[in-house]
Amino acid sequence: MGNPQMDAAWKTFQGMLDRALPHEAVQELRSLMVSEEVIEELLRRHDSATTEIVSLREPLALGRENDLPWYGGPRREDANWPAYEKRLRRQLDEDEVRKIDEASSRIVGMLDHPKKPGFRSRGLVIGHVQSGKTSNFTAVVNKAADRGYRMFIVLSGIHNSLRRQTQTRLIRDLVDLNPSLWHQITKPEHDFVPPPNAQSFLASKGQHLLLVVKKNSQVLKKLRDWLEEAREQLDNCPTLIIDDEADQATLATRKINPLIRDVMGRIPKVCYIGYTATPFANLLVDPVDEEDFYPRDFILSLPRGERYQGPETLFGRSPLDHEDPSEAPGGRDMIRSIPVDELDSLRPSKRADVADFVPAETPSLRHAVLWFWLATAARHARGQDDQHSSMLIHAHSATPVHDAYEPVLRELRDEVATGLEDRNGVIDELRVLWRDESARVDPEDGGARLEFEDLLPMLGPVVSTTRIVMDHYRSTNRLDYDSGPVNVIAVGGNTLSRGLTLEGLVVSFFVRSSNVYDTLLQMGRWFGYRPGYEDLPRIFMPDETRRWFAHLATVEAEMRVEIDRYLTEHLTPLELAPRIRCHPKMKVTAPSKSKGAVRAAASYGGQLVETRYFPCGKNEVDEQWHVDNATAVWKLLEAAHSTGESGDVHGARALWRSVPMEHVLSFIDEYEFHPKALDAARDLMRDYIVKRYKNSGAMASWNIGVIGKAPDGVRGLINLPNGTAVAPVVRSRLIGPDESVADIKTLSGSRDEALDLTIPTGEKQINRKVLQRLRVRQQPERGLVLLYPIDAKAPVSIVRRNGVEQPVEGRAPLDAPGEIVWGVSLIFPEPTSGEDLAVEYDYVQADLSRVFPASGEDGEDEIEDVSVLDQDLDGGNEGDA
Fold first, then answer.
1. Is residue 545's pLDDT more than 80?
2. Contact 612, 819 (CB under 8 A)
3. Which pTM does this prediction carry?
């Protein structure tokens, strides 16, 4: 069959794949007497297309282990995605569109095939605050609709403002692009109102259904009952639920959590995807409850753009474990302190003071508002006068406090507007402020710095046209970005603290208190992209709050490194729960959301911990890493030779017995384990050894061994302190995307642990279980350190297959700096008492211990305001606390 014919057959086969599972489509082809040669070529194309999606390097993702890939990406003849992609290309550069395309394809590929007989899966997409999650899930909806999903339910926060904003965006980016293909059941003006005759809606196959629903108990009850009316029709209505802000209200609420479960329970074929930038609560859900929302089926971590201004960009962070302190981000000079002595003038000190509170125009508030006008004028001078410019004032959750700010801000606006007209001292104040502030942060990409005189003509119109908006549920004057460019100072609380985007946010004035990770991080509406004005944003907050955000930047960076690590190692969310660092004065999430969490602990009894990852970058830092590790190894060997007892030498191996514990502890302190080796946590291993020693005297002495090869020449010989010479061993790396870090998978051989043991005569099968049993008998309280000199430049080992010599498949040369790389294995003896001692540390994680039961074989916002989330309000109400 020629290429045009094969292309036509391929197009037909793709259509069949939309109507049936891949194996069913193949059966249909065979029933039509299509040749096996053609079927094989069609399957090859299908496998190639689906593998391309699964193999995307970004975003990092992990799906279910045994699921066969089914999604081959968008097609030219699709209706929804090509239209949305065309719109994106008018708004974003090519690279950003590509990232949205790839990430959304990866997510759709992790959904269930819409023709699967029945499914109910749960996944999580982790983004960044204000980083384009809506664009991503809009792309996912478009692509899933093109492949056969029919109903789309978007759970959009707990406030009308966010629901309305999400509905409006989806109308623009989904419905309006293909109006004949979509039916909106919800509208910008109202939440879900049950249409009559649910059966006819759900039985019709000609249109996709769109519902943007607030997480409100009354609304969700209506939706649940409406779906119940059409149980039979739902069998053929594959549904995608997008839960925006999935850590809010969905988890651990008395009414809303069960109602979302009920909604899912009414739908025979449904995929749930939670989207959040603060997944702390989602990762601490009890994974044993299969009906709750632990992401048991898939998880994906969205990359951030290079110009994204996130927590570490703005606030800086502490170095991560094993990170060079000089490489940790220090933050940008955009944070301004609100003095402690001003706080009582900016927010009520206690709830009883709310009703009578009147804010003052403090120096920091005046500084912030004046800078907002200067920065907005600068944007106009740069040609951005057709874009929105916003300032956020977030002082308290109570609406009377918001309203109390209005006269203060209006008076300041009138004073400055008059001063600009009269050309009085206000102009000099603005000039000095511009000179001082603009000098502290350079424009991006070497842009020219504006002079105050460049701004002066724009200042009058900017100030006089600034709207002052109290954004809360009682206000009739709300944020509106749909009626043309606006300059606005928005004062609010809960409605502005999560999900809602403040367009063109330049200045944030933040005195709201919270000691909960996710609550505080979500209040950071200032995170995001600031194209063309990256140098202008300023954030005003108390110094303690600034320190908390810097801590959160460290927590977030560490959490993402860990998630990325287990994704690259192909572990599932049910096999490894990411750890979240604790803080002595803050809570990770509301206590009600973390009942499934346990204090992370390490127990090394009977364990083998070995180095698997080695830095291999061509730079001085990685070179020095290996030099320092070699120094630590030789220091241990010399201590072993001088304080221990020389054991028998077995060929290219050496052994010293009874080396005092203090030398092993010093070695653990000095040898650098790679950050990806989370089981080789230096502090935990040291604490565990000391705890075992204090408890029972165990591990007071250790055996130290070297595992090498028999010398086969003079190249690379290592002369040990006891006069033995060994050659380095060969370990190759797994082929992977990150060439700067080598993953050798396994360091030690199956018999290496036997170096200090005597193998009984007649023992035929030697494995780890046998060696552990022998160690309990022969070395019950003594640990073993094995040191491996690895040839840094050796080629990949050659094997013979079918009579042909070839390199080991999937491997590449180690190619590390220097000549010798030192690997380490530490073998910890099992406690003879049968009771091991775990070492707790400053992290929490989900409790996975009950997922696969052991078989005997190998501040103000201290908790989320549940009263708001669970109240029985009608669909039109919302509230700040």
1. yes
2. no
3. 0.63
